Batch of 3 targets.
Target 1
Amino acid sequence: MALARSLVTRPRILLLDEPLLALDARIRRYLRDQIRLIQQELKLTAIFVTHDQEEALTLSDRVVLMNQGRIVQNDSAEMLYTRLVDAFAAGFIGSYNILETGQASVLTGRHYTTRVAIRPESMTLLPAGQGLDAVILGHSLLGNVIRYRVECRQVLLLVDVLNRSVADLYPNGGRIGLQLELSTLCEVA
């Protein structure tokens, strides 16, 4: 109702401060899509304040990521997600694996001078004997994604895999291969 009342005056800028905060997930997704459609249809500039990374990435043409009142990164959603500027951004956007320089070097064979971030979906689980040797420590069902906890070369990693079938689940303790998409690594301060 508050959104409808504010639109009656035909504003040029719309400020939405955590408007979906107290809603359940299904209604939240629906209203998020409706707000985006209204904003685009009316060609409104909207400032949408949120602590929810999915909302920020879904609703935004441009994301301004702030930490303690300071702008950390100001970019398109796509660039913010794929080209992080620091470890705070990596911790806020997605579920990046943040690796210390030694861990990154052990996994990639390359030398790093800063920490490295890699997205969970930027790694592929393979049959044992292919890629890097790894072990499944556990998994969480996130709906359409299964997030595995994997140990590879004494480094703990989160790896996301599409949930295609219960028959495809890797068992805890199972040995697997791991392939990293090195082009997706981001060095973060």
Target 2
Amino acid sequence: MFKVTHSVKALGFTLLISAALCLTPASADENFNLKLAYAQNSQPVKDALARFGELVKEKTDGTVTVTYFPDSQLGGESELVELLQTGAIDMTKVSGGLMGSFSPLYDVFSMPYLFEDVDHFYAVMNDNKIMDDIYQSTREQGFVGVGWYDSGQRNFYTEDRPIEQPDDLKGMKIRVMQNQNAVDMIRLLGGAPVVMSQGEIYTALQQGILDGAENNEFALTTARHGEVVNFYSLDGHTRVPDIILINSNTLSRMSDSQRQALMAAVKESTQLEIAQWDAAVAEARRQIQENFDVKINDVDKSAFREAVQPMYEGLKNKPEQYQIYQEIENLRAANH
């Protein structure tokens, strides 16, 4: 009798455990270990991405964790987007400039003198009405945007003279990225655009093949271009954000609470990146002047904006991009 009772009890307990195990996957969030890869980046971006991983783990009670593949271990930004599309990685962070290759809506960010100032830029990037359509525009390609980081403003740096008005660029050979808006901007300002890889710029400036280039402050410090130029002119012609991307399938498999936690973690990491970026830019400007002996000058942008207006007239032929531009302009008026 004891054996039968014991067996029945044991069987009952086993069935109870089995039932509980069967129910657990349906009632609990699926666990995710997100593979996040990124190319070479400044320290503020690296710190923010690391903080994102900590935050999403905390906010999901450990059901979502992050494994990192940093510093171009899996390739450059173009390769990383391709890996994201196939699902080989789950997340990455790339320049908004690159994203124009995947969705023309991102090309709006490379329009010159688009933002009045940094506050206008932040207002746009935090406006869901504007950004959601842009983020979702790549869904059919297998990935979407979930947030942004500041990557500063691009300014001219030159060897012979500062750039204070468009006429100063006349005839100057200026390196630009492989981006049609960048090429058109230099031409309208009177310069001669030269498309060249980042790795060739230092030698080209040193040898006089280039008269100047354009980038944020870290090009002069980290890439040491400050050794071969004398002027850094704060015209702020473009302010292209970095974009945080996730594989669409990965995001859709998450529960609502996990998705909400991920989005909250991205936003909090952005606030950290912004604060650290501002401090890093201030330090870079100090180094530019004191360590590299490069003169920094402010620029009145009015004449520059007027010179590039034909690009905005041309934007009218691209209705979706022009609509985004108009929404950005509306925010300019609201913030100033």
Target 3
Amino acid sequence: MYLQATTSFAWSVIGETPIVRADAGRKQTHFYGAVNLSTGKEIVLRSDIMCSEISAQFLTAILETTPNVPVVVFWDRAPWHRGEEVAKIVKDNPRLETIFFPPASPDLNPQEHVWKAARKAVSHNHTMTTLPALASKFEEFLSKTSFPSSFLDRYGYSAVRPLFI
């Protein structure tokens, strides 16, 4: 996330050129996010960097948020989703399994719909003047909003669910 707003629409007086403010800075922050496909609840972690160590911390947060149940994490193929730290967390937690989406398939990833909804609600056309304020608003939206998904039904989970209960 950058402070720069994504302009999706602008109003102006007829005959006058609209003024859209732009932040020339390159400061940024990142978010890890996972939507619980059963509840729609989002697990979110803000980070200044994306790396294997932070990915491992995020997996730990997911495990702590969902104790005593098997957890399957579907991931895109970002390089920070691999590495020694991630492999150690997966190895040390037999109830955790990671599955990678096929290359170039963001349309399969339910988390992409979460990011889209959050950007539309928070970062499009915003008037925030500081990145920390914008990031906090983005994180608050993710934490307080439910994101229902048809992913499990679309791929037959409801047909096999009795086998896992």
